[in-house]
Design a protein that fits this description.
By secondary structure, the protein is mainly alpha-helical. The chain is built from 6 helices and 4 strands. Helix 2 runs antiparallel to helix 3 and helix 4 runs antiparallel to helix 6. The longest helix has 30 residues. The protein is elongated.
């Protein structure tokens, strides 16, 4: 087998590999290819004799590197997924928000801290309230809870009941938040408590209808 044949086989490999979209399938395919090299067995319908094994060595190292990169990406993807709120966690927080807004002494509160190096915005009844709604279950660092109460990241569909934007984004809600900016949605700077309760109920109903 000459290098022209090796190049032909590599092109066959690349074409088949490109058709695979799933990372797990890619890892499996690459590992099968590597196993074929190690056994000096049939690869892409052609035999690789031992005295030509060196010709595959560079290509084989490329495959090994690809396997390692894919596994790192997959592991990172799994790790990032663990930092997201599950839909079940999201619904549990909505129920807690409902309890808060229906309590007899409830009144909306908000805080916009502008201290340099420590800026944050939070309300007493929104998804931004880590102190009120985070638990060891939904905390980003459960092993450090309750010292670190940051909740996991919301997904694109996990909207806060008081986010008035039509298009949801996990950042920037402050500027369109009913709790922070009631004057944008009422005739004067005051809160409509009944409307707040309705917002929460509507979001809970949406979660029931759309999330398993």
């Amino acid at each position: 087998m000459n290098f022209k044949e090796i190049k032909r086989l590599k092109n066959i490999f690349n074409e088949r590999y490109a058709k695979l979209n799933n990372q797990i399938d890619k890892i499996k395919y690459l590992e099968e290819y590597e196993l074929a090299f190690n056994r000096n067995s049939l690869v892409s319908d052609s035999y690789v004799p031992y005295n030509h094994y060196y010709a595959w060595d560079y290509f084989k190292s490329e495959i090994e590197n690809e396997i390692a990169d894919l596994q790192k990406c997959y592991e990172l993807k799994i790790e990032l997924r663990r930092l997201d709120l599950t839909d079940e966690m999201y619904k549990e927080i909505l129920y807690k928000i409902r309890d808060v807004v229906n309590s007899p002494d409830f009144y909306p509160k908000s805080e916009d801290c502008t201290e340099i190096g420590y800026k944050y915005t939070t309300t007493n009844c929104g998804l931004c309230n880590d102190d009120e709604f985070s638990t060891s279950k939904n905390a980003m660092w459960p092993n450090s809870f309750p010292d670190r109460k940051s909740m996991r990241y919301t997904k694109s569909h996990q909207k806060c009941p008081f986010d008035m934007r039509e298009e949801f984004d996990s950042t920037g809600c402050f500027y369109e938040c009913y709790i922070f900016k009631p004057h944008k949605y009422e005739n004067e700077y005051h809160y409509d408590i009944s409307r707040i309760k309705e917002m929460v109920e509507q979001r809970i109903q949406w979660a029931k209808d759309n999330l398993n």
